[in-house]
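[Archive record]
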Amino acid sequence: MVQEIITYPMAPSAQYGTDVRVFNEEVFLLLDDLKDTINENNLDALAAFQVGSYYNIVVIKEEDGSFLELINPRLISTKDKITTIETTSYFPNLSAEITRHDSISIVYQDRYAMNHSLKASAERSVLIQRKLDYNFGATFLSKLSKKEKAKFEKKLEFGSDITISESCPTTFKRDYLVKISKVLLILMLVLLVVSLFVSDKAILSGMWNTQIGLSIAALLTNITYFFYAHYEAKQYTSCVSCQSGNIIGTTLVAFVKISVIMIASYFLL
């Protein structure tokens, strides 16, 4: 029978997995339920803890569709390290970068209480380690580095798989365009002020042509800023809405300043 998989923020029903001592119908039904739940949810494996059981049991679905039943599994040796992006049913639609053992050896029992050993590496090793975490009352949060845990807490906050690069930064590359625009506006303003002290028409004519060139450069800079800023904002999905208003406001203010200076220059130059 298909069981409900425990998901965040619901806590597991027990703190530590209890070893199976009596291999009876209750255990066999649990194994069958885990298989049904794996098939129903298209999963690779499940620990008994994930469906609210306190037994130290893990069931893994093999590539051929058969199942490997790990009863009372114990990790006995590890070798090397591997870093992968993991997902888990406990945190739906979220992932995290985790470093685990690349190769492991475990011992376990089957449903007939027979002892076995198993060696696993790469993806299979990571899968088994993930499920063993549950039997110790833990999720992959306990395996995260301090930096990765901070990133994952952000994902939990937003309820989506947001990476750190997607969280809203305080500075952007588009800020350089704003600085260029400000410099051009200052040059235009300085040219306008200087024109007040010039009476030669030829010089004023040259200053007017320079002012036109500076205004065109300022306009093009702000147009470039407007489109690039929206492109850059899309890279940070956590703060697109707040950025959009700021981008539009910054562009409009710049256009107004350019217009005011050019109107004044037209009459003075």
In short: Residues 261 and 267 are 10 Å apart (CA to CA).
